[in-house]
Amino acid sequence: MVIRLLAAISEKPGLQDELDRALFFAIRHGHQQTVDALLGLGANPGREMISNGLHGAASRGWKDEMCYYVKEYNVPVDVPDESFMTSVMYVIAGVPPPYDSDAIDCLFELGADATAEIGDYGWTYAEYALAMGKKDLSRRLATVAEAELDRQLELEHRLKATREEGYQSFRPFEASDNQLAETGRFEQLPHQEIIEELSVEESIHNTLAKVHQGEGEYFITLAHAQCCILMSHFEVHNMWFSRSSMSTSKSVRLAQILGLYQLDSNSNWNRSATLPPPKDWCEQEERRRTLWAIFCGDKNTSGTTGWPSLMDVKRISTLLPASEEAFHFGIEEPSTTLSQVLSSDNSHCSLFACRVITTHLFHECLDHTYQEHQDPDPTDIRNSHFWKRHQDLYNGLATAFITLPDTLRGSHNQEAMALNLQLHTASICIHRVGAAQARKHNIPIEILSGTQARLLPAADAIFGIVASLADVSAMFLNPLVAFAAYMATNVFLEDYIASQNRDSEIKMTALMDLMITIGHENPVTASAAVQMAHELRKTGIDASAVDKVQDLMAKMDLKGPLMGQQGRVEGSVVFCPFEAPSGPAPPGVPSEFLRNNLGGMP
């Protein structure tokens, strides 16, 4: 009845104000069906100078609705009502603690001005909260506003310094067509890939130039460590794995010289004096984040190439990263070390910290698959080194899945998807090697079937996550997503060969088609798709598989092995094998030496 009445009202002219106000009150009173009906009838959740839908959601502390209105309806987050109240003020006035703080953080993340002055007297949000009797919230809002003002002041100083160096204006270029033609601005720009490569090459040149200056004072800096790890990420996306490894290695050594691995150590006997004491918690947190970004780069490099890791977890006493919100607003937050988390619960860790933990487990599992274990009795599943380590890693993965924070469960966002994909990939890797060892040493069938039974659920989970992706191409920019898809496709292939499972065939084909499609824009995924095509042809499942990737092969610059090579240990996979050197050998180094010593995996 209410919906029919609303529909009738909406047909009358001049009643948009009533629709918009009705939306506010429907949200305030939690009438979701009415809210949906009003939005369907054209109610504007961001109407200016009126109590609107965003204000209603703010008054209830509904973060999902606030995000939805701002992102989908392009509602200005600071839009005022008729009495100039903003969404932040609605939260302060209507939402009880501690939920008010979370809702305001959400609004600040959406772009609300933390330094806004409200009312005729220019009150701050902190003063308004104090007037509403919320002392704790008032103190927090004051801290956030102060941090934002400091950030703006620092930006102004940087802009002023830039202008003094000769860049007098940041206005866009404005000129007539004749002037544009004379300056060559109508010429076609190079492809984005070329521009990116030139930019990185310039960064590398500038970085290396400082290495040869002085005695290290020009390049032993936090910025250089950050530069090296960023360069390695770019090089991975271009499949320059040896170059990426060298950039990662440089960042690791710089981090060690700077003492980033012992920022929170209680011992002073071996403290590095390379860096001055941090000015505040934010600067210390930036150093921690740099260390852990380098840690993830090193562990992912080791895990996907089979090379030894350069960083020892036991030597790292630096605390794990705090939350993004704490770092952004400069609010100190307690943390713990990686060693402590691995022996307890990680459900209260920040998103970045969970990424570190996941990367560590991923590396440990893949490193286990590369080892050639010399056990006296490899059939002793209780006491042999291989099976004890295998069980420890399986327990570690199970614990990680159980203790993941709620925000990282399932497919809520790209970060949650990436972490879950990495854990499921690690699970596939260890159980493939476990199954191979069981077959090799004629271990009882129940052990073999037990470890094989864990492969298909992990592959199904990867398939489900990939199938739910809203932007598949963007997600596959992370090479580890391509690795996950490749390993899941392998599992479906092996299951179909063994059992003729129709469901596995369908999922295998779907993932293969997806990798081929994405491979046209993504060289890492293209290489994995070509490798998978060869596997399909070799097993006789699809004799035409290689024909389907001919377009990818024509585009690829095949200088080395394809992604996803079988490792030395039965059941292991080296996702990023070393590319064989091409071109003439360096002076004084025979080509035969390079071929015999740097040829990578067979």
TrEMBL record:
Its main location: nucleus. It is found in: Nucleus. One of its GO terms (biological process) is DNA-templated transcription. Residues 244-327 form the Xylanolytic transcriptional activator regulatory domain. It comes from the Eukaryota. GO terms for molecular function: DNA binding; DNA-binding transcription factor activity, RNA polymerase II-specific; zinc ion binding. The keyword Transcription regulation applies. GO terms for cellular component: nucleus. Keywords: Metal-binding, Nucleus, Transcription, Transcription regulation. The keyword Cytoplasm does not apply. This is Xylanolytic transcriptional activator regulatory domain-containing protein. It comes from Fusarium oxysporum f. sp. radicis-cucumerinum.
